[in-house]
Amino acid sequence: MSVVFPKGFSTASIAAGISAVKGKKDLALVVNNGPLDAAAGVFTSNRFCAAPVQWSRKAIADGHLRGVVINSGCANACTGQAGYDQAAKEAETLASLAGFPKSSDVAVCSTGMIGDLLPLDNLLNGMKAAYPTLASTPEAGHESSVAILTTDTHPKTVEIEAAGYRIGGMVKGSGMIAPQLATMICVITTDAVVTPEQMHAALEHGAEYSFNRIDVDGCMSTNDTVLLLASGASGVTPDPEEFAQNIAKATASLARQIVGDGEGSSHDIRVKVTGATSEDAALACARAVAASNLLKCAICGNDPNWGRVVSSLGIVPEDVAPYDPNDVTVDVNGVRVCDGGKPGQPRDLVHMEEREVHIDIDLNTGSTGEATVWTDDLTHEYVHINADYES
Amino acid sequence: MSVVFPKGFSTASIAAGISAVKGKKDLALVVNNGPLDAAAGVFTSNRFCAAPVQWSRKAIADGHLRGVVINSGCANACTGQAGYDQAAKEAETLASLAGFPKSSDVAVCSTGMIGDLLPLDNLLNGMKAAYPTLASTPEAGHESSVAILTTDTHPKTVEIEAAGYRIGGMVKGSGMIAPQLATMICVITTDAVVTPEQMHAALEHGAEYSFNRIDVDGCMSTNDTVLLLASGASGVTPDPEEFAQNIAKATASLARQIVGDGEGSSHDIRVKVTGATSEDAALACARAVAASNLLKCAICGNDPNWGRVVSSLGIVPEDVAPYDPNDVTVDVNGVRVCDGGKPGQPRDLVHMEEREVHIDIDLNTGSTGEATVWTDDLTHEYVHINADYES
Fold first, then answer.
1. Does residue B101 belong to the interface with chain A, where contact is any CB pair within 8 Å?
2. The domain B2-260 is classified under which CATH number: 3.30.70.2860, 3.40.50.150, 3.30.1360.30, 3.60.70.12?
3. What digits encode the pLDDT tens for the residues B9-39?
4. Which of A56, A186, A292, B149 has a CA between 20 and 30 Å from the CA of residue A167?
5. H helical segments located in chain A
């Protein structure tokens, strides 16, 4: 169902001839049929942000959006004024097709290769052909969640049935996934009656504890975009706190699915740091461990190599995360392989057959700061995908 | 020749049964026969620093060393008090064999798997068997440079004939190589007449512009050690500035050789950033680009993917390195593939057959800050080595 699970949304998708993969669906439209058109968004903090990000940031500034155009196969990033003009043209075209008052009622998202302009005629023709097929069916929702994929191996969606209202969403992303968002395009919809301010607060909080805490490969994209659209079609005005919790649930589910489909990965790794002096200290430690190529290779080889955990932990400066190396414990899948900075239980006791691997680090500072970051292992297939990927 | 190229040094090596590779030489001794015993060292800044690092830091604090014990096959890291006691015992044993006044005349270096204690009997017996074979021959120098290797594919040495004195050195290191030193053990010798203070200044400066500017995999070791020993046997007192330049030449050569032997690598990548507001700003940008797994995979695939250069550049915060993305140019092997933040020359014009790849980034801020960092590409073989490596 994805984005059409809540009432008041329709979607369409098509193979517009943008992707290098012949016949692959590469264009999706999402339209908010109201009665509300409230919206919120968070975007990449990469300084080389793509033209569609530049456009969408402006479009959403007033807290309102009626439609979204998403394409895979080309990122329209690092394309200068010409790329920005293309993004504007996309928005104008959907606004004109749908009779929206202005082009800034439309956000645009692009994902794919950096440095190429869009094949604009293909894209605009695709939009015109797809527009009449807009629908609110489960099939339409599913097809759109497929159309936005690049190196992803399967669609990633979420549906939450809340108290009288619904939340739905779709996301793409499997490489260039790093601390501040990811190479990801995410559209979340709801039929709740909510204000743009409330949505923005909920989305920022949700993103912070989900998309900003996954790291597939330490690389940050130029195109990351997360949009939240509200139609108000349920007529239900939720408790703001409860609404924020449900948005956080949706972003957590989608982020977890991104890690589950990380490029070439064979293990999903949860790095949890506890006993830190603060959440920030715990987060710095968790990020350092999750970013270790050596550890990620070891996990690929089913090796619970705690030496690579602590050597990564050891690069976090003392003023960022105070702790005594002699107090640190490391559990891998429940086995305490490092105890007080020294060898603990034999590594042979650790079972590594499951896809999910849990690395639990206790800094034992006496405080309770904690944080969790998810990452993937680093595999032959990751190298293959990224040495050969050009589209 | 390596460490015995200068006068006043002898070395010996042996297969002591420390490495998991049966019959591999895994132990080397280096002895300074004087008349001077001046020494300087720089060490890992990893907070989980290994027992031999803890020992050697104290031993060298007085600016004097007469001998070094180096083993491969076991890092003696994260081994607590027992590991420290082992390091002390190694030093005592060489001091006793050689008749040095005190055990702190000896530094010890270990490299290999983290979290295991040394097979101490093997190591001490090996030392006793090797000691009588100490020699100053080219063969002895070569054999020691082989004995210290782990996943390295070949020995890495340097010989510099300076004005009346000599500098020699050997280094190991090919994985866990990151900004602040590397999983490296390096011993540099000289027969110049120099003071510990002068040596320390020269070594710190040399390391900063060599070992601290290479990054194979972004991982920092627990065991990094660079030692500089002076015998004074040439009788020549060099000009301090000229001496420092020659030490910098030696460290630059050894660091470059480490990158050339980076685990599984097929390309050595030089990332040079110019036109920054300061050297620090340039260095932050160069490090960010050199750390990008996606870029390193692209280079492995002979793809001059400048989109992955600028998307890595874009994560450096503006207060760290002010620049305008629209002013940035990127040349790969002399072809300007990105011009003013937009596509430049076609990527097909870039030749990628050579092992060495040059990425030149001009931030065009109007200032002249610049910095260079070397790294390797990320290959299938890197994953293979680090998913399967356990010794």
1. no
2. 3.60.70.12
3. 999 999 999 998 889 999 999 999 999 999 9
4. A56
5. 51-59, 80-98, 120-130, 138-147, 196-208, 240-260, 279-290, 293-300, 306-313, 380-388
